[in-house]
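Slide 14.
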Amino acid sequence: MKYEGYTIRKLLVEDLTEFQQIALKAYPVMFPENYSPEAQQAWFDRMKSSIEEDPLMNYYGCFKSDKMIGGMIYFDFKMTLFDQLVDVGGIGLVCVDLLHKKEHAAKNIVKAFHDHYYGRGITLTALYPFRPDFYTAMGYGLGKKMNRYRFKPSTLPKGSKEHIVKLSLSDSKKTVECFNRFASGIHGMIQTNKKAKDRLFTRQNVIGYMQDNELQGFMAFTFKKVDPDNFILQDLIVEELIYENSHALRELLAYLNTQADQVRYMYFHTQDDFFHYLLHDPRNGGKKIFLTSQECNLQGLGIMYRIINVRKLFTDLSTFNFRNQTVKLLITLEDNFLKPNDGKLILYFDNGICSVMDDNHDFDAEIQLKINHFSSMFMGVVPFKKLYSLGLAHISNLDYLDTINQLFTSEHPPITTQQF
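Slide 15: predicted structure.
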């Protein structure tokens, strides 16, 4: 595909060395260890394996006059959207040769990404931004914030570890099954596969909650040295925590509680805003107090979402119930990056069931907003009422404010543990 003088195509194995060098130089702090020849070769082997064995992960390059000057990875995800499993396009490791920065390569890389998934009939894309403002300008809406908790092991609840077992690579299939059962019931969660979970066992310690020979929860974690002069003290980083029920969660946390003698702090990343209720003392050990409030956790902006085909999205959701609401709604979107989205769309909601109508139909109310805010609202990250109160959305008839707010309100905002 051609974009403003750039050619963007799928990479072959023989292209990977060049792609690797561009990525290493684009992210020198992110990949410092990969500058060693051994580490570079190991990474190359993983990329080669992905190209040959993983059809859901594809490498693409951006070429100028037959010279690669950038690249990215496309991910074919399956995500739980409310109560349905849908295809979603993901993009990661977007990189541009340092000599070709500010030449619109990244912009055209993202354009090609959108065209690729739009052409396949996929309506949603997601990414982790290098710069949120850059991707906001391309129509991406903010996802739910990520929390980083730091706490002492002793502040976790004590309890039984009767069903806790150490897991190994031979349990990879069970972790996939457990993860995907969990993911199927959580809005925003992305399904995993055996290849991804095999990697989990090569890099981390993994324990599980086994009940009647069925894995109903697992946790992956690593240790980080605190002091070079103290070989028995370390921090523990929880890399992944999956649980299908509260019994599994309580026993996994009880396991962490017992590590207090050799662990200074534990670090845990989660989009669960209520995790601190589990902690006897949720303070993070910091000394800062602001407005009579004590530091508890750090928050960061992570995943972003974008609707790349609004009309088809609602057509595909023809059986989904939008909170039993009834309204004839005109949506006017501003989308400067994907012109098919830019403009007006009339939707009829009849007791929650949506129909896409022709442009000449009548309507009860009109809302106006940008595609990035609409994407966040649709995913359940931010309510319409909040966008309206912030001046980021407009409505023609305030009598329908509550109805429209209900249409796009999710009981649970989207969460994901997928890093890409």
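Speaker note: The chain has a mean pLDDT of 94.
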